[in-house]
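Batch job 17 of 40 flagged for manual review because the log was empty.
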Amino acid sequence: MKLTKLILFLLLFPLIATAQGISILPSELPENTFGSWVNNKNEVVLIVSQDYLVINKDLFYYNQIVKENNVLNFTCTYNFDIKYISLTKIDSSSIILDEGYKITKLTKALSPSTTTLPISFIGNWYAPNSKLEIQENDILFADTSYKLDYAISVNNAEYYFVLYYDSEYYFAFNYINDNSPFININFPEPIVLKKESFFQKYLFAFIAFITLAFIILGYSLFKWKIALTKKREVNKRKFTEMQLKSIRSQMNPHFIFNALSAIQNLINKGDNDQANHYLTEFSQLLRLTLDKSEAGLVPLQDEIESIKKYLELEKLRFHFNYELNIDPNLDLQQTEIPAMLIQPFVENAILHGLIEKVGEKKLSLVFKLEHDNLVCVIRDNGIGIETAQAKKDKHFKREKYGVKLAKDRIDLINESYNTDAKITITDLSKHNSEHTGTQVEIYMPLKY
């Protein structure tokens, strides 16, 4: 008898269970059930949607909904987790959530839901080895684009929102910790991401700005240094040119004094014809000299003409022979040399070398090319440097002044034009006792 009753109970139990409640679909839930529900601390505890339930920040899918009178019984799943809850005393503003071990009275959230997040969320969020990028309409994570399905905030600071991708939903919420914003998302494992800092957000722009600033600063400093260097070079060159003009202005009176002394000597001798001829030659030479007095560089052709004039004048009062050899490869018009640089050495060779010489007196001038330099060689067969110094007097000191000025000009030219001009003077008597005289070699650059 007991066995019969047991079998009968088992056969009738499904009918009895069905009679106690009705299974419904999520779309058949009462309209006022959908939405967000908060507890007495104004915390979102329950979100009801046709596709999912969010219970205490955990998202579940519907497995079964049984409606019994004014009670809704839910069997929910997520992955392999099962959740049983009941909703009772449902009206438009309140509801009771029964989780089996806890019953909570909830009220309907006054804030409406939205499908957008505030602008403050837009940007990058970082976790160790992970990055979440929130754009205006998309949320990018691990090369996947998620859509925002649901979002709500009851205080305009903390948001609860649900992301959607490929029939799957993921719950997320934000919070503030140590004055830094964080987002917690179940993907499906929970991951916590921190909002990028100001430095992280503008790191690339900051690096680009600093790099550009350094480039601009470096370029400005470079330009400033170049301008300063040019200014210094201009001032230095102006100063050097003033020095060169000063030296040339000293050389001109020096040369004129010697020439006038020669004319005076002829007049004193009563040789008026020679004096007049000398004066005519001197006036022509003086004109050439004055024409070059303001010029730093003159064509080699002009300098050679001046030297010829001078030699012809000196031959009127001193008996000597001279020869002039010019390298045929030299362009006399295009090649420039410092004005009045050679004349003092020619004068020195005559007045201190050849005058004291007994016998045949020879003077040679050679202009030639040598290793991209213009070389002028002035050679005489006079008494030589040491013998001349042994006979030196006040007149010798005065004449030597012209050579010193020429050497000073060479130093200034090298400093001004960054060249390697030089003057070498050799006493030929030291090398061969049978041949006396002096040789002067003047090395000058072809281009200044």
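Reviewer: the log was empty due to a logging misconfiguration, but the result itself is present. The chain has a mean pLDDT of 83. Unflagging and moving on to job 18.
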